[in-house]
Structures are given as structure tokens and as C-alpha cells.
Amino acid sequence: MIIAHRGVSFTLPENSLPAFEASWELGVDGIEGDFHLTKDGEIVCIHDEDTERVCKTTAIIHKSTLQDLKKLELYYEGDTSLNIKIPTLTEVIKTVPKGKKIFIEIKCGTEIVSPLLSQLSKSKMNADQIVIISFNSDVIKTVKNLNPVYKAFFLYSCEDARDIDDVIKEALKIKANGISTDNESSKLFVEKVIDSGLEYHSWTIDDADVALQLIEWGASSITTNDPESIMKKIQA
Helices 227-235 and 17-26: crossing angle, nearest 10°? Predict the structure, then answer.
């Protein structure tokens, strides 16, 4: 599967509805978005803990209401008349076509899990269209304990330089369905994850040759900023 990282974020504001809609037009298998919980218990799609980088004005997400955040505009060098806003989880889900997937990356803590699962249960999406991902093992553990119907992947960065076996043990302990990592060169890592019974997924891979190698090794998905180039390489 080819997953658009924060949507088509090379040319449109990351984690925005236009970026996600452009992803679907390319024919990707899924989108990946980042989510935080607001002060008033709403779930919004934004990567950072505050709005400084994407809005050029600062509001801290967990200290802001949805109404506060909707007053802001996502920075965009293109058509400024578009007035692109920070979307809610509900708004993002509505863009997802039937049969396509959404990878929901939780960027805060376990406080988001109950409202997240509540919103997902009320959506029209099938459980197999939804994947929850997080670097926070407590988030994955809580999701799987509260509603194991949803797939959940443990995120791991190779910069952490942890022993592969320890990462796999932790993923199994928290009942994750898979591991998603930025490994680009270790076939052994891929093999060990798959041999343990977990799914192996890759992020954020923008080199088409690397993506093809990872797929050959057994990666189930490639999350990328450049889905168009990756898909062309695979289809060649």
C-alpha cells in the first residue's frame, strides 16, 4: 500500500483537506495524518503541539478550543484566497473513499483514545479502513485494550538505536499489530519483525528505489511525501 504522508504536502499545506483530497486524486491506498486533542475535547489534524510552523501564529493545541483554532489559517504560498483551516478528524474522515485507508497518528497521550474511539464508532468507515499509529506505547496499549478491532502499529525511529529484538518485544507486549519504522537498509530488521508475526510498515520513504527494495523485503505499506513517484516506480 502507498500511503500519502500528511497528504500531498509538497504543494499543499500538510494535514489539510486539500492535501488529502489531492492524494485521493493520485490514487493512493491511504492517507496518514497527525492528530491532537483540543482543550474542549475535539480532535484536530495537526502535527505539532502548537500552530507556529503551519499558521505563522502561535496557539497551543491542548490549551485552545476548536473555535480558537478554526479562526486561524494554514500558511500557503499558493492561492491565498483558499483560506485553508486546520481540519477536524471528522472532516478528514469524510474525504476517505470507500475501500481506502486512513493512518491516524496520535501525537499526544492516552487522553485522546476514548474520544477517538467514540468518533470512529460513529463514522461510516469500516474498521479495516482505520489504522492507529503512535510512538507512545501506552497509546497503542490503551487502543488495543479498549477496542482491539482496530489495527494499531507501534512507531519506531532508527535514530533511537534500540535493539531490534527489544522493539519487537515491546510491540508484542502492547498487542500492536505491527511495527512502522524509518529503516531503509536493514533486511534483517524487516525479517525479524515479520518472523515475529507482526506486520512491517515503512515511513517516510521518498526514494523510489528504496521503497521498491523495502516492498521486496516484505513491507506492507510505504508512507511517503511523494506518492506519485513511488507509484510510478512500482508500476513500471
Answer: 10
Report whether pLDDT(105) > 90: yes
Among 57-61, 79-83, 102-106, which is the least confidently predicted range?
A: 79-83
What is the pLDDT, as a whole number, of residue 235? 86
CATH number for the domain harbouring residue 138: 3.20.20.190
Q: How do residues 52-64 score in pLDDT, each as one tens digit? A: 999 999 999 999 9
* H or E, element range at 178: strand 178-181
Count of structural domains within the chain: 1
Closest among 190, 191, 194 to 182, alpha carbons compared:
190
For 188, residues 6+ apart whose C-beta sits below 8 A from its C-beta are 164
Say what the pLDDT of residue 91 is: 98
Domain range holding 188? 2-235
- In Å, what is the CA distance from 83 to each residue of 17, 96, 151, 231? 11, 22, 34, 30
Using a 10 angstrom Cβ sphere, with 0-12 exposed, 13-18 middle and 19 or more buried, the burial of residue 200 is buried
Four-point Cα dihedral 62, 132, 193, 217, nearest 10: -110
Of all helices (H) and strands (E), which one includes residue 216? helix 208-217
For residue 197, give the nearest of 216, 222, 169, 156 by alpha carbon.
169
Mean pLDDT confidence for 178-191: 98
